[in-house]
Design brief:
heterodimer; A: 364 residues; mainly alpha; 14 helices; 0% strand; B: 214 residues; alpha/beta; seven-stranded parallel sheet; 16% strand; globular
């Protein structure tokens, strides 16, 4: 028995006509009202700064089922324009394409290492008896161990990329240090904790270095899953990293009651991003201790310690800044594109700092 | 003026564009072609078929920004499938004077135009271009029913069914329809001659009568 398509189409058409008549008879809701309703219904993803609630970061928008190619012709040519005022619709469109490039870059990164994983696991490198180490060197220009390391990272990198609402760059040193946490807490929770840490830190202008990530992983060993995404955990991770090491118990006992400055106040620049501002007073007399810095009148011995405390703090900050610069140099492309004389100057400066630190260390 | 030939999926656009280009030229219009489809079929055909008007490769999402349209000519664009190349389609609709939506009178084509799963309905693609255009209005858009049954005229069978169905949804539908005949279907990469005396010549006359041509 054959289907009568004409009859089915007529029925569909009749229903469609009736629907259109009903639509025409009833007024459609105002688009503005719909927009307001959606805005009201949107969940607040990040708690207030003081909150200890679970700061679930807003996830990246879900990918449409139909993938859309991202091609270079989507990008406008860079051009100096004296533009002012609100963006035109055309500029809004151009901006959305430019911003999409960043999201695509993170996606391309994990896809790259997934591809390497597939090549390794399916032995696609084997033509003419080629080995995996040879393939890595020939085709990627990287050592086998480096490629294997990045292959370990891609599932977590993917999870982080998909959970980020902003396309922040994700240093592979961070992902590497997060891997032990995946074993204990699973991939989703690890990614969520890391993304929430980045959001929390960015809001307060804290730098998230690989060492801070290590602190988070350390704290996670003894933490319940719910505690992993709390502001308190993030504060501990950041402050553990920036806290100066005390060499004697006496210092701990008699340390002045002055509160260490919040990192947000202490670190004004973003060395990771190439902002080398070390904070007000760095390298100047502005950090001399001032009267009233301590809550109680200390004895003479304490005064001696008080006098050096700002330098201790300042050295710790400078160390953080150096570490940030190191990440900027090694994880970015600064070194690759630096002039020869710049590279020599970097080596000279780094060696001079290392030698000076060793000199001091000899007497400890 | 800029005429953009578009459709969500395969609908015979390249064939129609080539024949329409020749019909326009034979009617005395100065034509310039643009191939905005990565398949390069329109451009390739222009070389192999020795077209009497130039065709340029321009499959770019920056068409609206990069192409200076020649004055005094009719620029005719063969656009890639809007489902797969939405950015190119959007770019063209920002500057189009006339959009011709090519579709066959079939349920498959109708669904892809009106109710595409996981894609933007064609009318919404046209409408969303308005904000980018100088007059803040969507480009004038007409439906050309293509690959129609040769035995079925505009006011008969499925051709009539879909013409009326589109009109009920506020589409402009050309009276001229293009039948599915070997003359057009087998002409790819061969020279085109005598287009004025075909359905495409009728289409040019109708476009003139409707005030769609300069």
């Amino acid at each position: 028995m054959s289907v009568n398509y004409k009859k089915l189409m007529d029925e569909e058409e009749r229903a469609e006509r009736e629907r259109l008549e009903v639509e025409a008879a009833t007024s459609a809701p105002e688009p503005e009202a719909r927009g307001t309703h959606e805005a009201e219904a949107a969940p607040v993803a990040i708690p207030s700064p003081g909150g200890e609630a679970d700061p679930v970061p807003p996830a990246a928008p879900e990918e449409p089922y139909r993938p859309q190619p991202f091609t270079q012709d989507l990008l406008p040519e860079p051009k100096e324009i004296e533009a002012e005022g609100d963006l035109t619709p055309e500029e809004v469109d151009e901006l959305s394409h430019c911003e999409a490039a960043f999201g695509n870059a993170n996606k391309a990164e994990w896809m790259k290492w997934k591809a390497a994983h597939a090549i390794r696991s399916r032995r696609l490198y084997r033509q003419d008896g080629r080995t995996w180490p040879d393939y890595c060197q020939d085709r990627f220009g990287d050592s086998e161990s480096e490629v294997n390391r990045r292959i370990q990272q891609w599932p977590l990198l993917k999870a982080i990329t998909e959970q980020q609402s902003l396309p922040r760059s994700i240093p592979d040193s961070h992902v590497q240090r997060l891997l032990p946490m995946v074993k204990q807490h699973g991939q989703d929770l690890t990614a969520r904790a890391y993304v929430a840490l980045r959001v929390w830190a960015a809001d307060r202008r804290h730098r998230v270095t690989a060492e801070v990530v290590s602190e988070l992983v350390g704290l996670a060993q003894a933490a319940e899953p719910l505690a992993l995404t709390t502001a308190n955990t993030f504060r501990l991770a950041i402050e553990s990293k920036s806290k100066p090491k005390r060499s004697s118990s006496t210092k701990k006992e008699h340390a002045p009651e002055t509160r260490a400055p919040e990192p947000a106040e202490a670190i004004e620049g973003h060395p990771n991003l190439g902002d080398l501002d070390l904070g007000a007073g760095f390298g100047s007399a502005a950090q001399e201790p001032k009267a009233g810095d301590t809550a109680a009148e200390p004895g003479a011995g304490q005064r001696q310690e008080d006098a050096t405390a700002p330098f201790t703090e300042q050295a710790s900050r400078a160390s953080d800044v150096l570490d940030g610069m190191r990440i900027g140099f090694t994880e970015g492309q600064l070194l690759q594109h630096a002039r020869t004389d710049t590279l020599k100057a970097i080596i000279e400066t780094a060696l001079a700092i290392a030698e000076a630190a060793e000199d001091v260390l000899k007497d400890r | 003026m800029l005429i953009v030939n578009a459709s969500p999926r395969t609908a015979g656009k390249t064939t129609d564009t080539a024949w329409l280009g020749h019909a326009l030229q034979e009617h005395g219009f100065d034509v310039e072609g643009f191939d905005a489809d990565h398949s390069k079929q329109f451009w390739d055909w222009s070389k192999a078929g020795k077209f009497s008007f130039p065709v340029h490769l321009k499959a770019s999402a920056r068409f609206h920004d990069e192409v200076e349209l020649p004055a005094g000519k009719i620029s005719l664009v063969d656009c890639g499938h809007s489902e797969n190349h939405p950015a190119i389609t959007d770019s063209l609709f920002k500057v189009a004077d006339l959009v011709i939506l090519h579709m066959s009178p079939t349920r498959a084509d109708w669904l892809r135009v009106e109710k595409p799963p996981e894609a933007t309905p064609f009318k919404d693609i046209v409408l969303r271009s308005a904000v980018f255009r100088a007059d803040k209005k969507p480009p004038t858009t007409w439906v050309l029913l293509n690959r129609c049954s040769p035995s079925s005229k505009r006011n008969e069978g499925m051709t009539k069914h879909y013409a009326e169905r589109m009109e009920r949804r506020d589409w402009n539908v050309f009276t001229t329809v293009i039948p599915n005949v070997g003359l057009y279907a087998q002409s790819m990469n061969f020279p085109i001659a005598g287009a004025k005396d075909t359905h495409f010549g009728d289409l040019v006359v109708e476009m003139k009568e409707r005030g769609l041509l300069p």
